[in-house]
Amino acid sequence: MGLQCSVDNPDNWQTLESRSLFRNPHLEVVQERVSLPGDSRPRIWTTVRRKKAVVIAPVTEAGRFVLIHEARIPVRKWLWEFPAGQVDETVEPSPDVIRETAVRELREETGYELVPGGELMSLGHFYSSQGFTDETQHLFLARPVRATGKGHQPDHSEAIADSREFTFAELRAMVAGHIIQDANTLGLFARLMAKSLFAD
Q: Which of 21, 91, 12 is nearest to 32 (CA)?
């Protein structure tokens, strides 16, 4: 017999025990004993808690997408990605703070900014790897954007070699050809396509 529950009501989930195993400024690893809605058997789970984050699809006036080429140490690869970054606040950030983070990460990681009167469109959120982390990525479309003339100025912990413009056709070919490999860019690309915001 399957679980009988209202799974999307967080009030039905009970944390019976939570123990911190590791913490740094970016994440916390906790071991939890949780009672699921409609299930009498508690589950023990190790969860990585992370701050909220943003992912931005920057598009120029000519319709070109701006991607960054960033070193990703865990997988030992340089990957083409949409710019992204964590929200500084550790408590539940407001929508304004999330939007301000998106504007900041766009400028720092790509060296581009919204033109005056440009649009920062919220496209919802998704969970990057919900099997082990609560990380929530807030998705945005920023258009039109223009180069600031100062180049990208990433955080000291980041290794970004380049930012470059790609046409929609090039971006789609990169997704289809397995050149785009990170969940953030794939998730945001899927949201853009599902909303029919771009086409050849």
A: 21
Asked if 50 contacts 26 with a C-beta cutoff of 8 angstroms, the reply is yes
Separation CA 189–CA 105 (nearest Å): 18
Res. 92 pLDDT band, cuts 50 70 90: confident
Domain boundaries defined on the chain: 10-50, 53-194
Measured CA to CA, the distance from residue 143 to residue 57 in angstroms comes to 8
Q: Which pLDDT value is given to residue 37? A: 87
Closest CA to 107 of 66, 167, 156: 66
Q: Tell me the residue type at 10.
A: P
Which tokens go with 73?
A: 């140490």
Torsion angles phi and psi, residue 89, rounded to 5 = -70, 135
Domain at 53-194, CATH class:
alpha beta
Contacts (Cβ under 8 Å, ≥6 apart) of 114: 103, 106, 120, 142, 143, 144, 145
Distance, in Å, from the CA atom of 79 to the CA atom of 178, rounded to the nearest integer, reads 11
Task: Please write the tens of the pLDDT for every residue from 32-73.
Answer: 999 988 888 899 999 999 999 999 999 999 999 999 999 999
Closest CA to 81 of 137, 27, 156, 143: 137
Whether the CB-CB separation of 31 and 21 falls below 8 Å is answered with yes
Q: How many H helices and E strands in the chain? A: 3, 10
